[in-house]
Design goal:
- By secondary structure, the protein is of the alpha/beta class.
- The chain contains eleven helices and eleven strands.
- Helix 9 runs parallel beside helix 10.
C-alpha cells in the first residue's frame, strides 16, 4: 500500500517525514503554559467598544476580527480546531495566516499549522489533542448548543450553565491549578435577551433572525440607535466584572483568548439576529494575551 502511494503521490516521502517531525515537535513542547478560551456569545465589536470594560481593557490589544461562522455551533466547531476569528492585519496569532496560536496535527490546514505556536495531535479536535498531551480540559457553556455532545464530548469535564457567576464557580471548583489545562467558558449574557443576574430593565424586543421579514427591508432605528444595542453594552459591562474574578483566580502563566463567537444584526439592511450572512454578524472583538503580561513568545 505504501509503495503504491509513493508512486501515485509526488513528494509522499517528504510529506510523511514532515508529519513525523511535527509529531516529534509536539511531544517536545513545554507544558509550563495553560490555555483559556472565553467566548462572548453574539457580542458585536462596536458594542464591546462602547462598553466600559476596565478589566479586559487592561489586557489586549483588542482588535476588530471576523468570525469564521455566523452562529454558535459552527463558530465553536471552528474554534475547537484552532481556527479563531481573524483580523485583517498581519498580526501573529490574531491572524492565523501570519502565525496560528493552536495547530491540530492530524487534520486541519496543513500549510498553516507548521507555523503554529502550540501543536496538538488528534484526529478529532484540539480539545482532544490537549487531553492527549496531558492537559486538563474543562469547559462550561451557556447556549443550548452546548447540550450537544458533538461540541462538548472532547472535554474531560463540561457543564451546561446559563449564569456567568455559576459558570466561574464551577470552573474554579473543577480546576487543579497545579496541572496544565485548556479551559473554556462561553458566556451567554451578551446573547438576546441580554439578561444577567440582578438586571431589572428588560430589553423591549427580541433580536432573532427567525422573526425577520423576507425580503429584508430596513426601517426604524438600527444599530447603535436601537435599544437592544445598549442592552448588549450593559451585559458586556456586567461580564467584565465577572471575568476579573476568573482571571485573578487562575494561574498567571495562562494564554487567554477572548472573542465574540459571532456578531448580531440590529436592523441593518433589514437583518436581525445572527445565523445570516451579513457583515455585522461576522464582526467580533478579539484579544489574545498572557495573564502575566509577558509576550506569548516565539516557541512553546
Amino acid at each position: 500500500m505504501t509503495e503504491g502511494l509513493k508512486k501515485l503521490i509526488p513528494g509522499y516521502d517528504s510529506l510523511h517525514i514532515g508529519e513525523r517531525r511535527e509529531r516529534a515537535r509536539a511531544r517536545r513542547q513545554s507544558k509550563d503554559v495553560n490555555f483559556m478560551l472565553v467566548t462572548l456569545d453574539s457580542c458585536r465589536y462596536d458594542t464591546y467598544c462602547d462598553a466600559k470594560t476596565p478589566t479586559l481593557d487592561a489586557f489586549g490589544p483588542w482588535m476588530l476580527a471576523y468570525s469564521p461562522a455566523t452562529y454558535t455551533y459552527a463558530a465553536h466547531q471552528s474554534f475547537f480546531v484552532g481556527i479563531l476569528p481573524d483580523v485583517a492585519e498581519p498580526v501573529p496569532y490574531y491572524n492565523r495566516f501570519t502565525r496560528q496560536l493552536i495547530g491540530l496535527l492530524e487534520v486541519g490546514e496543513t500549510p498553516v499549522k507548521k507555523s503554529t505556536y502550540f501543536t496538538v495531535v488528534s484526529d478529532r479536535d484540539a480539545v482532544d489533542g490537549f487531553r492527549r498531551a496531558g492537559f486538563q480540559t474543562i469547559g462550561t457553556g451557556a447556549m443550548n448548543w452546548f447540550r450537544q455532545s458533538s461540541l462538548t464530548g472532547s472535554f474531560q469535564r463540561f457543564k451546561f450553565l446559563t449564569d456567568a457567576e455559576d459558570q466561574i464557580d464551577y470552573y474554579l471548583r473543577e480546576l487543579d491549578p497545579a496541572k496544565p489545562f485548556f479551559g473554556f467558558i462561553n458566556f451567554g449574557e451578551t446573547h438576546d435577551p441580554f439578561q444577567f443576574r440582578g438586571k431589572t430593565n428588560l430589553c423591549p424586543v427580541r433580536i432573532q433572525a427567525r422573526q425577520m421579514s423576507w425580503p429584508p427591508v430596513q426601517s426604524g432605528p438600527v444599530g447603535r440607535d436601537h435599544d437592544a444595542y445598549w442592552h448588549q453594552v450593559e451585559a458586556m459591562e456586567f461580564l467584565d466584572k465577572q471575568i476579573g474574578r476568573l482571571f485573578a483566580s487562575i494561574p498567571q502563566n495562562t494564554i487567554v483568548v477572548v472573542c465574540g463567537d459571532h456578531g448580531e444584526c440590529l436592523g441593518e439592511d433589514g437583518f436581525w439576529g445572527h445565523g445570516i450572512g451579513h457583515p455585522k454578524v461576522f464582526e467580533v472583538p478579539l484579544a489574545i494575551f498572557r495573564l502575566d503580561g509577558r509576550p506569548i513568545g516565539d516557541s512553546a
